[in-house]
Amino acid sequence: MFFIHKTISILIGSFLAAIGVNIFLLPYSLLDGGSIGIGLILHYLTGIQVGLIVILISIPIFIFAWHYNRSFFYNSLHGMLFFSFMIDVLYPWHSISSNLNLDPLTSAVIGGILVGSGIGLMLRFKTSVGGTDLIGLLFANHANLNPGIVIFIMDFFIVITGSLIVPNGSLLLSCITVITVGITTSLISRKK
Fold first, then answer.
1. For residue range 124-166, what is the model confidence (pLDDT) as tens digits?
2. Rounded to the nearest 10 degrees, how much is the dihedral formed by the CA atoms of 152, 122, 41, 159?
3. 99: burial class by Cβ within 10 Å (0-12, 13-18, 19+)?
4. How many CB atoms neighbour CB 111 within 10 A?
5. Buried-exposed string 16-49: b where 16+ CB fall within 10 A, e elsewhere
6. How far apart, in whole angstroms, are the C-alpha atoms of residue 40 and residue 32?
7. What's the pLDDT tens digit per position in 17-73?
8. Terminal CA-CA length for the chain
9. How far is the C-alpha of 4 from the C-alpha of 94, rounded, in Å?
10. Which own/partner pairs from 103-106 qualify as long-range (CB within 8 Å, at least 24 positions apart)?
């Protein structure tokens, strides 16, 4: 039964996060943290699909996970693959945003809520989109720090760096996105 719940969480979580990225973040050149943020930065600079980039940058992280945290590897591999697939399949939906007529701030918040809901739902069932969270978790465990704070700092580093190199990017709106993703992920992933 848990396997069915996990599978449903991956399907729904990936769909929500992919909608958040494609309809609300991409049209305004907004960034998020983690592997999604790196994927967005490279997409804005090269035009390569975000999901493909997430898979490519996740390869060394998953090799690392295979050696140091096999449960993370097994629990996150299928989440990362399906999430990346959904982002790229739903990419044509980015044009929907022009019909919504949302201002960039509203788009940053709604995008953050959707991405955070998708990630939080997957975390609730012990899976994730993988990526830089593993690096943050391992570093936090090694340094005896709060993993949430370490991941939050990494996310802001990615957003600040991306905002410096992405044309038309907004540091303030991307920071709002990261904060919204973080809060929503925390609220959704919490077991009752």
1. 887 877 777 777 767 777 788 776 678 788 888 999 999 999 8
2. -20
3. exposed
4. 31
5. bbbbbbbbbbbbbbbbbbbbbbbbbbbbbeeeeb
6. 8
7. 999 999 999 999 999 999 999 999 999 999 999 999 999 998 988 888 888 778 777
8. 18
9. 30
10. 104/28, 104/30, 104/170, 104/173, 105/173, 105/176
Residue 9 sits at the vertex; the CA angle it makes with 14 and 181, to the nearest 5 degrees, is 55
Length of the chain equals 192
Are the CB atoms for 119 and 17 separated by under 8 Å? Answer: yes
d(CA 144, CA 146): 7
DSSP-assigned letters across all residues of the chain: -HHHHHHHHHHHHHHHHHHIIIIIIGGGT---SHHHHHHHHHHHHH---HHHHHHHHHHHHHHHHHHH-HHHHHHHHHHHHHHHHHHHHTGGGGGGHHHHT--HHHHHHHHHHHHHHHHHHHHHTT----THHHHHHHHHHHHT--HHHHHHHHHHHHHHHHHHHSTT--HHHHHHHHHHHHHHHHHHHS--
Q: How many Å apart are CA 188 and CA 75, to the nearest integer?
A: 18
- The token duo for 157 is 């580093």
